[in-house]
Amino acid sequence: MNCHEAMALLPTLSDGELDALQSAAVEKHILGCAPCSAQRDALAALRLRIRSEAPYYTAPETLQARIRATIARTPATGIPVRPPRERWRWLSAGAFAGSAATVVAWFLGSAVLDWRVSSDLDTEAVADHTRATLSQRLTDVSSSDRHTVKPWLSSRLDYSPPVQDFAADGLPLVGGRLDYLGGQPIATLVYRYREHTIDVFVRPLAGSASTPAPTLTTQRGFNVAHAKGAGMEWWGVSDVSADVLSALVARLAHGE
Amino acid sequence: MSAASPAGASRFEQLVLPQLDAAYNLARWLTRNASDAEDVVQDACERALKYVGGFHGDEPKAWFLTIVRHAGYDWIKRNRPAELIPDGAEALEGAADIVQPTPEQSAVTQESGAALAEAIAALPLGYREVLILRELEDMSYRDIARVVDIPIGTVMSRLARARALLQRSPLLVAIRERSGGA
After folding, report:
1. In this complex, which of A12, A57, A74 lies closest to B28 when CB atoms are compared?
2. What's CA B111's distance to the chain center, in Å?
C-alpha cells in the first residue's frame, strides 16, 4: 500500500468503517510512514476536539412540553384503516416476499458455487502436491531461512506471502515453490515433518471473511486443510496426520 | 394522511420521544438558532405523528432524523433560501470558500470551544450535516446516507471535505497560534 492509498483510507479507518483486511494494511503502512502517521493523529485530534468542545444541544424543557402537548391534542378518534391502502400493503408484501425469495435463491446459489469452487481447488492442490513429490521437484528455492524464501516468492508474484519457520516444533521450513491453483500462480511453502512433506499453498484472501480454523477434507488419501486468516487463504496438503496438518495451517492463518 | 390515531400517539412516544435530543441538536446545527430549531422539531414531530403508523423499520433514530432534516430544509427554504445550494459537489465546493470567515471577523471569539462551534456553524449546510451526524450523533455511514439521502461514497467525500475545511479554518488556526502551538 502506498501513501496515496493509505491517505485516502485514513478517515474511513478512523471512523471504524474499514474492514479488517484493509485496516491491517493501512495500519501496517502507517507504522513506517511519518506523513500518514501525522495525518492519522491530526484526524484523531480533530475528532477529540469536536466531540469534547462542540456543543451538543439538548432539547429544552419548553420544547419537550410543547411536543407532549401536541401528542395530547391528537384526536381521540383515530382514522380507520382505509381498504385501498391495505390492499397496497398486501401487494407490497407480496412483492417483498418475491424479492426476498430471489435474494435467498441467489445466496444459496452462490454458496453452492463457493463450495464447488473450493472443493475443486482442494483437488487441484492435491494434484500440485503429488506432481511435486513424484517429480522430486519439491522446492524451487531450498532454504530453511524465511528471509530467503519470502523475497524469492514475492519477486515472482504480485503479492508477498507470510513465511514462517516452525523448526523448533519439529516442522522445519525446507523451501518454497511456485504452483498454479485456480488458473493463477500461487506461492507454496514446503515444510517437513519427520518423513512427510507438507505443502502449504497461500494466496491473498479475496473478500474479508476470515475463518482461521481449518476445514479438513481428504482427497485420495491426502489430508487437505483449508483456512482463511492473516489476510491470506491457505491450503495445507500432506499425507501427515490431520491434526498435525490442521495445527500448522491454523498457526499460519492466525498469523502466529 | 391527515390525523394520527391514539395508537400512533403511543408508538410516537415509544419511537420518537427518545430521539428528541438528537432531533433538536440536528435542527439547532441546521438552523443555527435556538428558537428556530424548536419550530423545526415541532414541525418534524407533527409529521412523524402522522407517519409513525407506517414506520416498520428497525432504526427509529435514522427514520426520525430524516424527517427532522426535511423539516429543517423546508424551514431554510422559507427563511434563508440563499443557503440552499443546488446539489452537486462543485456547487458545494464553490460555497466552501465563501462562508469561511476571516480571522478578523472572528477576533471576537475568545475561547477555543466557541471557535470550534463557530467554525462548524460556518461550514456549508451539506458538509455541516454529515459532520454533525457522524461526530455528535455517532451514526454509521449507512445511516447518514439514509438520513441525508446520498450514496455512502458521497457521505465519505463530504466528511473528508468538512474535516479538511475545519483543519484549515482560520478560526481554529488563530486559536492554535494564540495558544502558542500547544
Report:
1. A57
2. 23
